[in-house]
Design the sequence.
């Protein structure tokens, strides 16, 4: 064959090979989710219904009050707020990582003066908005600090841990302050109300929040617990609110404290042990930049939780006590803005919402694995009045505009207490997440609950990496609907870049720092929980029905099924 005759053949082969090279890889098979409404799987507790923040005086700001009202309305479950600095000395003017109430001072004769006006404004806000306080007892008033100067924090331009972080120079007087505070709360709000508040002693005493020894913290706990119980015997007292137990310091301090309350000498009473009604510790993930994009580390957050549960489970007389993870977050600095720390860019986006869905499900799973009682975990996020729009603080809202993460809480609030069996072919095992986090592939997980005539199915598509990726096809088979049900009404709610996401809308506006009134209305509307489509009726055959959709990476979907009660004959 001549070269002229061979050329068309070579061209044909080359073109064929090129065409083959450009063929897109076959799409992965759809994720298959099976939900069994007739197979109960225990109760789903509202462990997520807690938030927190450093700045107590933000609580009763207009933005703070609006956010608290939103939280109180989003579910039938009681929402709680934890805040630092409730006993810190000052005039009540907040700044980043700082607040004050001036509850305790000394007069010219050196006698204690108790002033509850600022504290009352904060707690009156809780009562008015329908929020329950999770009361953190701290920090040290200037007049009681063993090292009072310098006192006020100037973070980030100066040291954070100043005179408010030191032990008292008089433990008995500290106990008297706490006792008077609890009695004042009981008088103002009623004993039956206050005795249901958790009273937590201090915050992260294993690091700079406490400039004392472990023994001094144990003494502080003894005097504080005694003061609370003398004022209101039924009020729950707990601690020690240490940092992540995955680290050496947090784990060692937690063990030391638990040993003290079981068998140590009580500094206030001289007896053995101390009252402990709940146990608290903190758990954090890590964020950093990887190959030019932000990357989260869910694994680290879960490891902290697992190690904390393991420590509690190792004390036979304590393992049945409620556990509160009084901070559980993707990283450790709520006031380190993503605008200055790009590794925290998740905060304005749906990725924060999908992370919270993961944390909700996996925290409960770890508690079941270790046989402990998880009462709740606190998302350390609130709002930051007076700062730029979408500046990237770890917050639920900005200038009264809800972020995508707040819509995750709205979804959680729609879940019923009765959990049912649900499995996803796209779900990573707990062991895999604890080993490699969600990086080799996304975690497409599911939680399902039901009531008498409705069910809710939560599905999320979480990945540690903030990168673009193809959406996943999801097919949900719902089994166990009441026999004779001909059809169900399906409503799909969605959080992604195009739904329930005011941040994307704000970016499209050109990121205005002085939005018009019309733009603010648009942003507030965009920040609400959106339906994917109008509700639709779909058929049921032999107690089964199917729902199919595509779920973007970092997207969260809530499917609500409703059906009529069977007709009586």
Sequence:
């Amino acid at each position: 064959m001549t070269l002229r005759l061979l050329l068309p053949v070579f061209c044909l082969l080359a073109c064929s090979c090129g065409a083959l090279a450009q063929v897109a890889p076959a799409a992965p098979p759809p994720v298959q989710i099976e939900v069994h409404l007739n197979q109960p799987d225990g109760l789903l507790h509202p462990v997520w219904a807690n938030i927190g923040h450093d700045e107590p005086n933000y609580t009763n700001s207009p933005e703070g009050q609006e956010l608290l009202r939103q939280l109180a309305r989003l579910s039938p479950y009681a929402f709680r707020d934890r805040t630092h600095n409730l006993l810190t000395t000052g005039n009540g003017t907040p700044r980043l990582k700082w607040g004050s109430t001036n509850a305790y001072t000394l007069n010219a004769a050196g006698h204690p003066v108790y002033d509850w006006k600022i504290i009352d404004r904060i707690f009156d806000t809780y009562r008015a908005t329908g929020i329950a306080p999770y009361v953190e007892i701290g920090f040290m008033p200037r007049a009681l600090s063993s090292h009072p100067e310098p006192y006020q924090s100037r973070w980030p331009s100066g040291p954070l841990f100043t005179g408010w972080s030191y032990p008292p120079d008089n433990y008995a007087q500290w106990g008297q302050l706490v006792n008077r505070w609890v009695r004042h709360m009981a008088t103002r709000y009623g004993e039956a109300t206050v005795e249901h508040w958790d009273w937590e002693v201090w915050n992260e005493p294993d690091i700079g929040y406490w400039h004392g020894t472990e023994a001094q913290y144990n003494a502080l706990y003894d005097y504080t617990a005694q003061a609370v119980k003398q004022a209101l015997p039924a009020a729950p007292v707990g601690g020690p609110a240490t940092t992540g137990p995955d680290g050496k310091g947090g784990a060692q301090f937690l063990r030391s404290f638990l040993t003290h309350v079981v068998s140590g000498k009580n500094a206030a009473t001289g007896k053995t042990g101390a009252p402990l009604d709940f146990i608290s510790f903190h758990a954090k993930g890590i964020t950093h930049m990887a190959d030019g994009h932000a990357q989260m580390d869910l694994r680290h957050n879960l490891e902290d939780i697992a190690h904390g549960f393991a420590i509690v489970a190792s004390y036979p007389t304590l393992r049945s006590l409620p556990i509160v993870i009084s901070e559980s977050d993707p990283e450790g600095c709520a006031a380190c803005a993503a605008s200055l720390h790009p590794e925290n860019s998740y905060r304005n986006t749906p990725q924060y919402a999908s992370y919270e869905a993961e944390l909700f499900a996996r925290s409960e799973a770890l508690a079941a694995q270790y046989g402990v009682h998880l009462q709740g975990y606190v998302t350390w996020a609130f709002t930051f009045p007076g700062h730029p729009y979408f500046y990237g603080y770890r917050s639920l809202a900005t200038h009264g505009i809800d972020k995508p993460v707040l819509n995750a809480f709205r979804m959680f609030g729609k879940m019923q207490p009765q959990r049912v069996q649900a499995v996803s072919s796209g779900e990573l095992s707990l062991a895999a997440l604890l080993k490699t986090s969600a990086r080799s592939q996304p975690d497409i997980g599911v939680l399902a609950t039901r009531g008498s005539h409705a069910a809710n199915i939560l599905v999320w598509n979480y990945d540690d990496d903030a990168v673009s990726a193809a959406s996943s096809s999801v097919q949900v088979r719902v089994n166990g609907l009441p026999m004779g049900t001909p059809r169900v009404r399906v409503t799909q709610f969605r959080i992604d870049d195009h739904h329930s996401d005011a941040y994307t809308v704000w970016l499209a506006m050109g990121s205005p720092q002085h939005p018009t009134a019309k733009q603010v209305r648009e942003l507030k509307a965009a920040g609400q929980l959106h339906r994917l489509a109008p509700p639709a009726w779909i058929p049921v055959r032999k107690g089964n029905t199917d729902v199919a959709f595509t779920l973007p990476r970092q997207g969260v979907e809530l499917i609500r099924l409703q059906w009529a009660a069977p007709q009586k004959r």
The two ends are 87 Å apart (CA to CA). The domain at 31-41+417-562 is CATH 2.60.40.1500 (Immunoglobulin-like).
